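#lab-general

N.A. 3:47 PM
ok so I finally got the sequence cleaned up, no stray characters, all 452 residues accounted for. can someone with queue access submit it? mine expired

B.Y. 3:52 PM
send it over

N.A. 3:53 PM
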Amino acid sequence: MERKLFGTDGVRGVANVDPMTSEIALKIGRAVSHVFKERRGRGRIVVGKDTRLSGYMLETALASGVCSMGLDVWLVGPLPTPGIAFITSSMRADAGVVISASHNPYQDNGIKLFSGDGFKLPDELELEIERLVMEGSIDTLRPVASQVGKAHRIDDAVGRYIVFLKNIFPGKLSLDGLKVVVDCANGACYKVAPSVFEELGAHVVTYGSDPDGENINKACGSTHPEALRELVLEHNAHLGIAFDGDGDRVVFVDEKGNVVDGDAVMAILASYLKGKGSLKKDTLVATIQSNMGLEEYLAGKDVKVVRTAVGDRYVLETLLKEDMNLGGEKSGHIVFLDHNTTGDGMVTALKMLNIMVEKETSLFDLRKGFEEFPQVEKNIKVKKKKPIAEIPALAAVITRIEGDFAGKGRVVVRYSGTEMLLRVMVEGGDKEKVARCADEICDEARKHLGGE
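B.Y. 4:20 PM
back already:
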């Protein structure tokens, strides 16, 4: 079945425009309830959201859908995506739903799904839910009278998640003496992040912690670390921490103002765990977008890098299948299975601070030795998504460029899972050559795919 709703990370689009409408949200609530209704008694679905204005609309619709199928809905309000996964698992709920478009602007929204154990759903289960939504085969299932579900609110969800996070940080350590600038992206971390770091002893300077429904990710957060960099330098802070709108991603700024992205974070974490004997199979799982410099750096630490398709769900699937414990994406979406079932920006930040305090060193020094290959990423609009192998001229250009790199560079060409875009990434040792090759691929693609 061809996907019409679900992309690489749930359903996403402009809020109140198909498919991100109240009508679809209600149907998703019904379909999820139908798939996960396993209890003899009343089933339970946890629903949380970030700080977008449209979250109210979609939350109400999802709750209505769940209740209409005879399950109870438990509302947690604004909470980071990994926090909702944690609450879902700790409550032993049947499933969890997150209303968020992650790092997208406020006018977008999305719906992500978790099973009762806190893990994102596999492809086949998402497709089953999509089928139920699109075909309407459960429209006639209508519990009545006392069989209709109820809505409840979990008032202490933020507190529960804060306690969970603080227990991750070693009790013998503290953040006393550290000045940290925290950019909450005006998103779901705005209560959690400052509280956790302050309670562990840090002096916290907050930014992007005043959400109004429309300013989520606006000139702030992990995709816009420029303001964070300025604040770190202005306040002479030890580091800066920037989350995205739903708190599953994080990037850092070191004390000298350098941005430290997900690849560098994974290099530091994998090296640390390897030294502790805690990196399962001495292997890190990354996606095809991670820089070749990550492999080169970790090879010197006797750590292997395994690559997956783009998307944290594929990183997670590999971690579970191969019994590994650390993986992630260049975007800062790090999955640390020793602590949570999905990417968790707060867990990543706490582990980074743990390493800095334990080793009595700075983030700048931790990153030393990690160098990225020049990399260029470009997106071009397309009118159709024809398999690259069925476009001989484009495939030939890609093959020739890959051959010219002779193992010292890479080409990754793929379609966006949610937009009519072709994504082109080229990396290698020579910056100018990389840029030329990316332009050549894009020019050839436009000839055949009707792009602009």
